[in-house]
Design goal:
It comes from Aegithalos concinnus concinnus. With 227 residues, the chain is α+β, with helices and mostly antiparallel strands. It has two domains: 73 residues, Helix Hairpins, CATH 1.10.287; 133 residues, Sandwich (Immunoglobulin-like). It is 33% helix and 26% strand. The protein contains three helices and ten strands, in the order ααββββββββββα. Strands 3-2-1-5-8 form a five-stranded mixed β-sheet, with no helix packed on it. Helix 1 runs antiparallel to helix 2. It starts with 14 loop residues before the first helix and ends with a helix.
């Protein structure tokens, strides 16, 4: 999760988030190169003597026409690749349905019989020592590590958004509509998120907690909860 005074993104815990971080760094390097070139040209124009040799400038016109197109291609191709990767869901190992309410989340494990629960934020007076304020919930979402999880997101009342930054997941929850996304937690851990769509007075008080556990631990947990 994020730390105090953190300037960058959270550590990536899924392959998609790793790709997003690499594309972010790639785009920043392209922007840095453009800013450096513009700064160099401005400095050159301010320090050199002015000339009027602008009659024959086909080479310059060719460069400032082709160069922006090349820059756009270097940004567009990786971006389209990641978009297709995020949209592709091939034979998920687990399907989870997340339903947004004012102001809590309901979860249904559709591969299991009667495995559903509501997830409420733990109030600050009831928060155990060492847990995070406004982020901890009474029932966490448990998923197996290194398994593709499909998340079907919807809402019961108003617009919500199911977002877990370290997993690279953010999907709008719209009443009467099913949106889907997927993620793969690459290592065991606890990942925090929040509703990312302003949904009313208690919008800030419906966190999301996803816990990635080994497959054996997940099977034990699901058998206990569904029995």
């Amino acid at each position: 999760m994020a730390n105090h005074s953190q300037f960058s993104f959270q550590d990536a815990s899924s392959p998609i988030m790793e790709e997003l971080l690499q594309f972010h760094d790639h785009a920043l390097m392209v922007a840095l190169a453009i800013c450096s070139l513009v700064l160099y040209l401005l400095t050159l124009m301010l320090t050199e003597k002015l000339t009027s040799n602008t009659v024959d400038a086909q080479a310059i016109e060719l460069v400032w026409t082709i160069l922006p197109a090349v820059v756009l291609i270097t940004l567009a191709l990786p971006s389209l690749r990641i978009l297709y990767m995020m949209d592709e869901i091939n034979e998920p190992d687990l399907t989870l349905k997340a339903i947004g309410h004012q102001w809590y989340w309901s979860y249904e494990y559709t591969d299991f019989k009667d495995l559903t629960f509501d997830s409420y934020m733990i109030p600050t007076p009831d928060l155990p020592l060492g847990h995070f304020r406004l982020l901890e919930v009474d029932h966490r979402v448990i998923v197996p590590t290194d398994s593709t999880v499909r998340v079907i997101v919807t809402a019961d009342d108003v617009l919500h958004s199911w977002a877990v930054p370290s997993l690279g997941v953010k999907t709008d929850a719209i009443p009467g509509r099913l949106n889907q996304t997927s993620f793969l937690a690459s290592r065991p851990g606890v990942y925090y998120g929040q509703c990312s769509e302003i949904c009313g007075a208690n919008h800030s008080f419906m966190p999301i907690v996803v816990e990635s556990a080994p497959l054996a631990d997940f099977e034990n947990w699901s058998s206990l909860l569904s029995s």
